[in-house]
Amino acid sequence: MAETAPAGAPARVELDELMLAMDVVDTLRHQEGLALKELGQDGRDAALKARLREIYAGQGLSVDDRVLDEGIRALKEARFAYTPPPPGLPRTLARLWVARARVGVVAAVLVVLVAGGAGWLAYQGSAADRAAEAARVEIAETLPRALDGALATATAEARDAAAKAAAAALAADGRAALARGDAAAARAAVAGLDDLRARLVRSYDLVIVSRPGERTGVFRIPDANEGARNYYVVVEAVDPDGRLVAVPVTSEEDGRRATVSKFAVRVPKATYDAVARDKADDGIVEDRVLGEKPRGSLATEWSKPVLDGAILSW
């Protein structure tokens, strides 16, 4: 009985020959110098085939001339060569799909950065808007109310024309500051009115110091006139409860200003001598009140003659 080829034999033979042809092309590509030299010259196919037989024989393979011819033609036609697709949208999309995991991470980072930047810009913008609105409200509403309130309380405490004039002057400064949008100056005016009220509320006596070991009076010889003398009586500011009160004093000698409870008031020689005689009797000044600062007034009401000026040290 004659043998028959399997039903799939012709297809298998064609596939084997195709694979051999592809191998021939691959061999020719690896022997690139040979291929370029031989294929670049007409009529050299036979010599090329002989060289290919030697190569395959060295590998223990026997290849038909038909397969070798097919491989040479395929190489010439670049039949089995891979030609990448030209640049374009399809190629770009394909590459993005292949690298989608890495691209996704990069895209996510970019989205976060863009969103964060947008959020930061929005926050900065909103912060600036809030600051501008707060400044507007302060100038238009907050400070005017504060200024009016401070003026009202200071004026309510003022008992004399000088105190009322001082309050009105501070209020005028504050309103001028508001008109030009100067919040800092307006706040300073409010603070000045608050300080004025605190000074008006305060009342105290200027009591002559009369304690063992402490000076009651001093005199100075001015540099400009060594033949003259300036006389001072040392006093303390004491409130109705007997507590010392710190008051602002400016020294006429060097212009230094300080808040102190003890200082020396310049007086005429007659006042100085009268205090000295009072103390000489028994070492104690009996008539100790030099002046009184009443509530509601900025001025001191003197009980003895005094001159303008004071000193802070002696």
UniProtKB/TrEMBL annotation:
InterPro entries: DUF6384. The chain crosses the membrane at residues 103-123. Pfam families: DUF6384 (PF19911). Keywords: Membrane, Transmembrane, Transmembrane helix. This is Uncharacterized protein. It comes from Oharaeibacter diazotrophicus.
